Amino acid sequence: MRTPTDSTVGRSAASAATWRHLGRRLYGEAKRIAAIFAYLWVVFGVLVLHESVVLSRHGLSSHFYGLAFVNAWILAKVMLVAEGLDARPHFQGRPLALPIALRSAGFAVLLVCAYALEETLINLWKGHRLVEALPAVGGGVRGLSVMTVIMAIALVPYFAWRELGRVLGREKLKALMLSSHKVSPGT
User: Fold this and answer.
1) Which of 33, 49, 43 is nearest to 155 (CA)?
2) Vertex 77, ends 63 and 20: CA angle to 5°?
3) Is residue 100 a contact partner of residue 159, using CB atoms and an 8 Å limit?
4) What average pLDDT does range 117-142 have in this prediction?
């Protein structure tokens, strides 16, 4: 009967540890993209709902609820990749309002650009010329600017949660926000 050598056992243990590490990392990334997706889906869903109410006032209808889902998924992936390019060292020792505001504004610009690129590519794929393929946002540059401001404001709670979780600790923040606490006077 043949017994495994110490080096074989060591290699298989190292391989198993590598797979466990990879599994934990994939699970962590899946949780992150799911959180980003859920947040964006809610934001886009509310915006689509608002658009349908505004259009209905003018006798027009809009039924693009699936678009909120698709855009949330695509833009969640864009945000996940962009978050990998971490700019936090630039914010060390600064008030939390600064990274929250700058990240919200920066990611809003990124998301609006990604949306415009996505719409352009879809329209090009459908056979439109480049001029026709550019997304028609009401008001042109003004419309894109308004979209960017709306997205920046909509992203503030997301980045506030992320920054507070970084400073306080994610578990402590979750406990503070999601569990009941009795507050005594003077605390």
Assistant:
1) 43
2) 130
3) yes
4) 75
Look up residue 85 and give its amino acid: L
pLDDT tens-digit readout, 104-125: 998 888 888 877 787 788 888 8
> CA nearest 133: which of 147, 143, 122?
122
Rounded to 10 degrees, the C-alpha dihedral 69/71/76/81 comes to 150
Q: Name the residue type at position 34.
A: A
The domain limits of the chain are 12-176
DSSP H or E segment with residue 72: helix 65-84
What totals of helices (H) and strands (E) does the chain contain, helices first?
A: 6, 0
- The model carries a pTM of 0.70
Neighbours of 170 (CB within 10 A): 12
Residue appearing with tokens 């198993």: 16
Residue 138 DSSP class: T
Residue 40 reports pLDDT greater than 80: yes
Measured torsion, CA atoms of residues 160, 70, 116, 159, in degrees rounded to the nearest 10: 0
pLDDT in the model for residue 152: 93
Supply φ then ψ for residue 159, to 5 degrees: -75, -30
What gap in Å lies between CA 28 and CA 103, rounded to an integer?
22
